[in-house]
Amino acid sequence: MDLSSPLHSLEDNGFHVINPDPSDTSKDEMESLKQELEKWKERLEQAEKTKADLQLSKLIADKEYVKIQHELTELKDAQEELNKESAMSEAIYETELRVLNQENAELKREIEKLKEELAECCSALSQDGKIKKKVAEMKVEFTHMEDTEGDFPDTNTRCVFSVTTRIPFKLNQNQALLTLEDEEVAQRLTKMGKHTVNLDGTTADVKVVPFTVGMGVKFELHVTISGKKINVSEIPELPIPDEWMRDKLELNFYKSEHGEVENIKYDKRSRTAVITFTRPGVTASIARCARYPFYVNGRCHRLSVSPNTEGHLEKLQLFSGISTKTILLKGIKETEDDEESVQDMIEIHFQKPSNGGGETESIKYVSKGAVWVCFEEDA
User: Fold this and answer.
1) In the predicted structure, residue 22 carries a pLDDT above the cut 70
2) Domain count, the chain
3) Full-prediction pTM beyond 0.70?
């Protein structure tokens, strides 16, 4: 290219220079700015929406935080309470465990004691073949003699007894039993229910309830006293055969006034014997001597002699029910007066006709502890 040649106009070369119109440029910029503005508005709206969402999320998060803090506090309190209860429970369990161990030791001692008693009972049973058992106290009354019915008049003696158990009743503290002469009075007092009793300046609402009698037993005891047999016990132990011992007993009891010995049943283990004579009526004279001499091997032993008896029961009856004349008083207040004075005040109250009462037969009041009282069938 020749740079030294002169410059020529663009028009000379066939080009036309067009200057831009300022108004067209301004319109384009405005459109561009408008578009840019719309974009920023959209971005602003989006940012505002995001801000609102973030604020809402923050509010929810704050609420959740407060809730979690509250729950955490409650959990801490519950944990502390649980720890306290656990410590208390552990102490209680340790105390209960000590008590249980003590009770267990006592039960073991009782078991050992019962085993010893059982061994003693078994030993006693092996000795006489009988088991002894305590029964309620009984009332025994002789009623009549029975006919011998074909036996010799002086052979056997037959007696009949009426036996009734005395019924025990536990009278607790601040209670009383009152027996009246008239059944109607007892029933009337029971129907009235509560009675206000004056106890030396103070009053007590005493409740009257029927007195329920426990289970009792009544029967006839038929006893036959043999006129030919006697029981002999405390026979000495001798190193001789049983047959020899029977012979010595027969020789000892054989006398002209007693007659011959018909039979001897000897039990070496229990050291007893039943001797039967041939002649009836001789046992009465022998039984009068409770300690009968027994001579053997140059020594004198004393035997225990008693009549031979047999018995059986008839007309066995069980009875129970509500007493028609005795009432039970409950709810008697404790006072400073002695037991006998309070008992007298109660009896006076129920003797007055104005209180629905009447004549009394007996009264028993308990101010402390408990006592056992016994009743018969007609209580």
Assistant:
1) no
2) 3
3) no
